[in-house]
């Protein structure tokens, strides 16, 4: 009986160590396995939400139907989102032919300042409660590449400059 417990204990330790090594080498995947990241999954239809544009007027994802485009879901007080703004500013110039839309949770006035300070030319839709519910906001930022059929072709959780650049390049 002791032998069975010893083998079971050693197996458990090996399993835990293996999982730890995998999680250490694949942190984003490990987070996604453990936590519900919310949002829209790859292969699902992107909801064609519309709402107030932070500069005034309205903006809608309907405008991009039938072509590839990229959507960023962010939050105005999210530090990782803020880190991405410098890259977005650069990529807004480098990939000017790529359709890009930000959907932002938080104060519309603050997002208007962000747009002005970074010279963003793309629309920023202020997320109301309906948009938050329909898109299942849980983590920020999330970048989506939407294909011509309106489905999520790629999803990038968090911010990585190279991956974001690749995502925008794939939208061309």
Structure description:
This protein folds into two domains: 2-34; 50-170, Glutaredoxin (3-Layer(aba) Sandwich), CATH 3.40.30. It starts with a helix and ends with a helix. The protein is α/β, with parallel strands linked by helices. The strands form two sheets. Strands 5-4-3-6-7 form a five-stranded mixed sheet, with helices on one face. Helix content is 44%, strand content 19%. The chain has helices at 2-25, 27-34, 79-94, 108-117, 129-135, 161-170, and strands at 50-52, 58-60, 69-75, 100-105, 124-126, 142-146, 152-157. The protein is elongated, with a radius of gyration of 20 Å. The relative contact order is 0.20. β1 (50-52) and β2 (58-60) form a beta hairpin. It has six helices and seven strands; from the N terminus they run ααβββαβαβαββα. α1 packs across α2 (27-34). The longest helix is centred in the first third of the chain and has 24 residues, at 2-25.
List segments where confidence is low: pLDDT < 50 over at least 5 consecutive residues.
none
Number of strands: 7
The CATH class of the largest domain turns out to be: Alpha Beta
CATH architecture of the largest domain: 3-Layer(aba) Sandwich
Structural class: alpha/beta
CATH superfamily of the largest domain: Glutaredoxin
Which fold does the CATH topology of the largest domain refer to?
Glutaredoxin
Q: How many whole angstroms does the radius of gyration measure?
A: 20 Å
SSE arrangement, N to C: HHEEEHEHEHEEH
């Amino acid at each position: 009986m002791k032998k069975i417990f010893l083998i079971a204990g050693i197996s458990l330790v090996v399993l835990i160590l293996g999982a730890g090594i995998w999680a250490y080498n694949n942190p984003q995947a490990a987070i996604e396995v453990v936590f519900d990241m919310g949002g829209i999954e790859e292969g699902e239809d992107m909801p064609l939400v519309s709402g107030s544009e932070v500069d005034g007027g309205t903006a809608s994802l309907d405008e991009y139907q039938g072509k590839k485009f990229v959507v960023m879901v962010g939050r105005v007080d999210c530090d990782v989102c803020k880190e991405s703004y410098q890259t977005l500013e650069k990529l807004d110039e480098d990939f000017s032919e790529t359709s890009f839309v930000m959907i932002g949770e938080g104060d519309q006035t603050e997002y208007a300042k962000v747009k002005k300070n970074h010279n963003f030319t793309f629309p920023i839709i202020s997320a109301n409660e309906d948009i938050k519910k329909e898109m299942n906001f849980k983590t920020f930022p999330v970048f989506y590449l939407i294909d011509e059929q309106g489905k999520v072709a790629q999803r990038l959780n968090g911010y990585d400059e190279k991956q974001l650049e690749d995502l925008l390049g794939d939208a061309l």
